[in-house]
User: Fold this.
Amino acid sequence: MRDLKRCRIDPSSWETQAADRQGWRLAVGQAVSCAEVERRDGDSQRRFRRKQRATQQRQPSALTCDDCGLDCHSGNGLHSHSRRCRRDPT
Assistant:
């Protein structure tokens, strides 16, 4: 039912449309290709918005490494990094 609506096929009259086999196959083929194009467009728009959020500058946090100045944004990350940073001063 949801797929019929997504393809803009009226769910209340699909049985009468399907009685004409050739017409039904043509209608379904066109509707599916249109729905697929809309899905791809929506995917690319969501991907673009997600990438936009990822490129925005993060605010510096108070959790920075005292040795190298790395900004960790989480206490666990700072703890893990500090253990590594103390062992390997490079």
